[in-house]
Amino acid sequence: MTVLHFIIGEAQADQRIDSALAAVAGITRSQARRWIDADRVRVNDRGCRASQSVRMGDALEVTPPELAKSALEPEAIDLEILYEDEFLIVIDKPAGMVVHPAPGHSSGTLVHALLHHCDNLGGIGGVERPGIVHRLDRGTSGVLVAAKCDEAHRHLAQQFHDHTIDRVYRAVVRGTPGADEGRVDRSIGRHPKDRKRMSVRGAAPREAQTVWRVTRRFPTSQRAALDIFPETGRTHQIRVHLASIGLPIVGDVVYGRSPARGAELDRPALHAAILGFVHPRSGKSMRFEAPLPADLTTLLASLERLEENRQ
Q1: How far apart are CA 287 and CA 305, in angstroms?
Q2: Distance, CA of 137 to CA of 125 (rounded, Å)
Q3: 58: annotated active-site residue
Q4: How do strand 270-278 and strand 209-218 relate by DSSP bridges?
Q5: Catalytic pick from 18, 58, 92, 137?
């Protein structure tokens, strides 16, 4: 029987126990509540309720349930693997692939592909999202890491929670930035009228910060290429933040204007180019880069031609 031990640090101090446990154990808050309700969590050697607060230095003792086998059926879907060992796998996710099952996407997801590729993925991270530590939107391409064991899942989830992950995205936006770089510091919450969208004026907002830098301007078409450095990891963060400052991502029909004819895409022009983290077992710093996919390369080339033809 596995027993996990955690010490509450400054980042989790004064949080509810279920929130703090979710952060340090790399599980969802609902999963943390289930463990607490099942008397699998003790704080300072005492039972607890999910609504209790923890203080810095509190000791959590957790006895997770045995991993349940995922009910999802493995699917033989090709993966572009950038790196793999016994603890984790790093892939270059194509645009259009959904990361985990959700309403309307019960098959063909990255999770289904991972279950086929990895023999012992089991219920790591939850039976509906085995191995998933973070996600990319369906329309976003690029680097994504998944865990192949509980140890790796907890370690990687903690790095994402602490914002120590090195992430660089590349995007093409509509508009002409007034500066060469900038920072958006606006909280993000659920859109008050559309639960599928996020908003800087949303309900129950959470702090979010995004840094951006112009790498190329296309004045003829009023477009720009950006490198983006998210300091937090909120849902749709980059798309919401850029749209909020008048720089919606090309092809993003949710947070931007409808795509025009010509040099546009049928998905957001957003690519997770670089992902860096500390290996959960070796402690070695690792960094992976996924090249721009063909559709973004074609888009940039067409914008370059427009600039050349104007000269």
Answers
A1: 33
A2: 19
A3: no
A4: unpaired
A5: 137
